[in-house]
Specification:
The chain has 508 residues and is an alpha/beta fold. The protein has 16 helices and 25 strands. The protein starts with a helix and ends in an 8-residue tail after the last helix.
Length: 508
C-alpha cells in the first residue's frame, strides 16, 4: 500500500470532484478535478524531463494555484520538493542548488537569466519558469499532457521535501521531511482542530515554508475542503473575505494588523470558528485585545521546520485544558515532549530546560550532514529543539526562550550569524553583533551593532546586506559602538544590546 502523501490527501478529496478547492483573488473557482488534472500533468512532465523518484525539484516562484499543483505533482511522482523563499538572492540560491543538486529548478521569469547561470554551474539539468499567475514555460510544457495516473508507491520513511533552515554557524541546513512526517501532521491537525465538511480556509500565508504549505494546505486538502487563496496578507481584503470563511491561519503580525483596522469587528469575525496563530510568539496583549474585540480566543500552536507542528492549544477548551495566552498547548497525538538539561537529564514540572520531541512528525535528519544530525538527537530518538521551555503540572508547554540567537521577524526565522558574516566582511567593520529588537508590526526587527575599524556608514551596511541577503534578513537599523559588551569568557552579551536599543521601534 502506498504511503505517498498525495495518495493520502486524495483519499479525502470530495467524491464529487467538481467541488471547489480554491477561490482565487479574482473570484475564479478551481475544482478538485482541476487540481488532479494539473498535478497529474506536472507529474507527467517531470517524468518526461527525466526527473526520477528521490530527485530534488527546487522551486522559487510566487504564490499561485499552479505552484500548489506543482507541489502536489512532485509528491505524486515521488520527487523531493525543495521550496525556496522568493526573497533569497542569487548568492543564497547558489548555495542551495550546489548543496541539494536538484534535477529541476522552477523560478520566476524575471529571475531566469540569473538562475539559469547558477543552475548550470551547479549541474542542474533543467530550468523552467512559473509566474505569479501560474503561467510560464513549465505550465506551457505541461499543457495537454496526459496526467500521470498512478502515484509513486512511496513508503512513509521516503523523502518528500527538504526545507532549508539557517544555522547559527551561517551554513544553512536542509531538513529532510518524509511522506510519513507530512501525513502524520496533516491528519493530526485535521482531528484536533475539528475540521468538518464545509470548512473554508482564508489562506494569505506564503507557501515556501511549513505554515503556509504543510499546515494550511495539507490540512485543508486532507479535509477535502476549500481555500480562499490570496497571494499575500491584506487586512482590508481579509475583512471583506472573513465573513465567508470558517478558519483563518496567520502569523501574529496578521492579527496585529487586523486589530489596527476599525472595520475589523465582532460581526466580521463571527462566522470564523477558528483563528490559528504560529511561526512567531503571540503576545499576550494581542491575544487579549483580539478576544476583547471579537469574543474569540486565538489558538496558538508551536512547531518548527524539522518537526512540523509539535504542540497546540486545544480547540475544545475545558477547565483542565483551556486555550491560554502565552502558552503553546499540549503535544499532538502520538507526539512526546519533555524538558531536559544540557546533559539530557529530564526535568520535572515547571523546571526550565530545552524542549525535546519524539514522534512521527520528527524529520529524518539534515541533508548531507550526518554528524550534525547525530548531534541533535538523543540516543533514545528525541530531537533537541534548542528552545528553552517548561511543562506545567497540567502538561501544557510554555516556550520561555528561543533557540540560541534566533530572531523571528514577521514570522520568518533569522539566524544572526548569517548576517554577521556579511557585515564582518565589509571594509571598515571590525566586528558586528546582530539582534532582534521589539517591533510593533514584525514582532522583532533585525538590527546590527557594529564596531568600526575605518569609515563606513549605516546605509552602506544596509545596502551591502540587501545585495547578499533576503529582504527579511536585512537590518532595519545599524548602531555603532566603541566596543561590544562581553562577559568574562569573551562572549558578546547580546542581552545587553537588546536592552540598550530595545525601544528603537517602540514596543511590540
Amino acid at each position: 500500500m502506498s504511503e505517498n502523501l498525495y495518495d493520502l490527501l486524495a483519499e479525502n478529496f470530495p467524491k464529487d470532484r467538481t467541488k471547489p478547492v480554491m477561490q482565487l483573488e479574482d473570484g475564479r473557482l478551481l475544482s478538485y478535478a482541476d487540481l488532479e488534472t494539473q498535478a497529474g500533468r506536472y507529474a507527467r512532465l517531470l517524468s518526461e524531463l527525466g526527473v526520477k523518484p528521490g530527485d530534488r525539484v527546487a522551486v522559487q516562484t510566487d504564490k499561485s494555484a499552479n505552484a500548489v499543483f506543482l507541489y502536489l505533482g512532485v509528491m505524486k511522482m515521488g520527487a523531493v520538493y525543495l521550496p525556496l523563499n522568493v526573497g533569497y538572492t542569487g548568492a543564497e540560491i547558489a548555495y542551495f542548488l550546489g548543496d541539494a543538486t536538484p534535477a529541476l529548478v522552477v523560478c520566476r521569469p524575471e529571475s531566469e537569466a540569473v538562475l539559469r547561470e547558477i543552475a548550470e554551474k551547479s549541474g542542474v539539468s533543467h530550468v523552467h519558469t512559473m509566474d505569479a499567475q501560474g503561467g510560464g514555460s513549465l505550465t506551457e510544457a505541461a499543457a495537454g499532457l496526459e496526467p500521470l495516473a498512478e502515484s509513486h508507491p512511496a513508503a512513509a520513511a521516503e523523502l518528500a521535501a527538504i526545507l532549508y533552515t539557517s544555522g547559527t554557524t551561517g551554513r544553512s541546513k536542509g531538513a529532510m521531511l518524509t511522506h510519513g512526517n507530512l501525513s502524520s501532521n496533516a491528519l493530526a491537525l485535521k482531528e484536533i482542530w475539528g475540521f468538518r465538511p464545509g470548512d473554508r480556509l482564508l489562506h494569505m500565508l506564503p507557501i515556501f515554508h511549513v505554515h503556509g504549505l504543510f499546515v494550511a494546505i495539507n490540512t485543508t486538502l486532507a479535509n477535502g475542503s476549500e481555500m480562499v487563496f490570496l497571494p499575500k496578507f491584506d487586512a482590508e481584503r481579509a475583512i471583506q473575505l472573513l465573513p465567508s470563511c470558517s478558519v483563518m491561519m496567520g502569523v501574529p503580525t496578521f492579527y496585529v494588523r487586523l486589530l489596527a483596522e476599525v472595520g475589523f469587528t465582532k460581526e466580521v469575525a463571527s462566522g470564523v470558528r477558528l483563528f490559528v496563530s504560529g511561526s512567531a510568539p503571540l503576545l499576550e496583549e494581542t491575544f487579549e485585545a483580539f478576544e476583547q474585540r471579537t469574543g474569540q480566543r486565538i489558538l496558538e500552536r508551536y512547531g518548527m521546520t524539522e518537526c512540523g507542528m509539535i504542540t497546540s492549544n486545544p480547540y475544545s477548551e475545558t477547565e483542565e485544558r483551556p486555550r491560554r495566552a502565552g502558552t503553546v498547548g499540549f503535544p499532538l497525538p502520538e507526539v512526546e515532549v519533555r524538558v531536559a538539561d544540557e546533559d539530557g537529564r529530564q526535568l520535572g514540572a515547571e523546571e526550565i530546560g530545552v524542549l525535546e520531541v519524539k514522534g512521527p512528525n520528527v524529520f529524518k535528519g539534515y541533508w548531507k550532514m550526518p554528524e550534525k544530525t547525530s548531534e541533535e538527537f538523543r540516543a533514545d530518538g528525541f530531537f533537541i529543539t534548542g528552545d528553552m521551555s517548561k511543562i506545567d503540572a497540567k502538561g501544557c508547554v510554555h516556550i520561555v526562550g528561543r533557540a540560541k540567537d534566533l530572531v523571528i521577524s514577521g514570522g520568518y526565522n533569522v539566524y544572526p550569524k548569517e548576517i554577521e558574516l556579511v557585515i564582518d566582511a565589509l571594509p571598515g567593520v571590525a566586528e558586528s553583533a546582530v539582534v532582534g529588537l521589539p517591533h510593533p508590526d514584525f514582532g522583532e526587527a533585525v538590527a546590527a551593532v557594529v564596531k568600526r575599524c575605518g569609515e563606513i556608514a549605516e546605509d552602506a551596511i544596509i545596502e551591502a546586506c540587501a545585495k547578499d541577503l533576503a529582504r527579511f534578513k536585512v537590518p532595519k537599523r545599524v548602531f555603532f559602538v566603541e566596543d561590544l559588551p562581553r562577559n568574562t569568557m569573551g562572549k558578546v552579551q547580546k542581552a545587553e544590546l537588546r536592552q540598550a536599543y530595545g525601544e528603537t521601534f517602540g514596543t511590540a
